[in-house]
Design brief:
It comes from Flavobacterium luteum. The protein is built from 10 helices and no strands. It has 247 residues and is an all-alpha fold. The chain starts with 5 loop residues before the first helix and ends with a helix.
């Protein structure tokens, strides 16, 4: 990985900023997109997981700030998931997966993310349905554990669940998912460090790029911004990465 190579900064940096822009616009941190890009560029597994969590932390925090300012965040819809997801993500972050298994699981998650971007999980809003707290806590635990193991925040899994079950509106889902991703990323990173892993310093070179894209995306996304075509392009990139991982 030639992090100081000019071509890397121009191409990879532009793609990274685009991913942060797109994901933050819908209340996500962008981990699945970062993972896809790093897989395509053949980053080592030891760099992929912590880097995705670090970038996720910054971008999801930015996204939450903008959605919170618009008063879309509902704490009663957030805490049942967070109570169980945070400790589960911490545990997941300590679990070292064999490279082949990691790639297969990550590939499956990326396919789910791509299908959502392609519109297979419609973002249609149902009538408000009362949140089933025990069920929500179980969902939070499962997503949190998977998030910690794979280096994602879990928002790409939580969002379609919230919408499908009618527990939140589109904007509420974005606000809830962004904070959910933020706390899970912290827990996942903490678990990663508890596993006596070292943090790749290369990751910090990517933070300013992701932050720039995240700020712009969250600013427009918290309003009524639409970027359908770009989402399809991003979904294609994710599919290619998942194929690269699984095959």
């Amino acid at each position: 990985m030639a992090i100081t190579n000019n071509e890397f900064w121009i191409v990879f940096g532009a793609l990274l900023a685009t991913v942060a822009f797109l994901y933050s616009s819908v209340g996500h941190g962008g981990a699945s997109g970062y993972l896809a890009l790093m897989a395509i560029y053949s980053f080592p597994i030891s760099v992929i997981k912590p880097s995705a969590l670090l970038l996720n932390l910054f971008v999801s925090g930015i996204s939450f700030f903008f959605y919170y300012k618009k008063d879309f965040f509902k704490v009663k819809l957030f805490y049942p998931f967070a109570i169980t997801s945070v400790p589960a993500a911490f545990i997941g972050g300590m679990i070292p997966l064999e490279n082949k298994l990691y790639k297969i699981l990550l590939g499956i998650v990326l396919i789910i993310a791509a299908l959502r971007l392609f519109g297979f999980f419609k973002n249609s809003e149902k009538q408000n349905v009362t949140l089933n707290i025990p069920f929500a806590m179980g969902i939070g635990f499962g997503i949190g554990l998977l998030s910690g193991m794979l280096g994602i925040g879990g928002g790409v899994i939580l969002s379609p669940i919230l919408l499908f079950l009618g527990w939140a509106t589109l904007k509420e889902t974005a606000a809830i998912s962004s904070l959910f991703i933020f706390v899970n990323s912290i827990a996942g990173l903490s678990g990663y460090f508890m596993g006596e892993n070292t943090f790749p310093t290369q990751s910090f070179y990517l933070v300013p790029i992701a932050v720039f894209g995240g700020i712009v995306g969250a600013y427009y996304g918290s309003g009524y911004f639409s970027n359908k075509v770009l989402k399809y392009i991003l979904a294609t990139v994710i599919v290619l990465a998942s194929i690269k991982l699984i095959v």
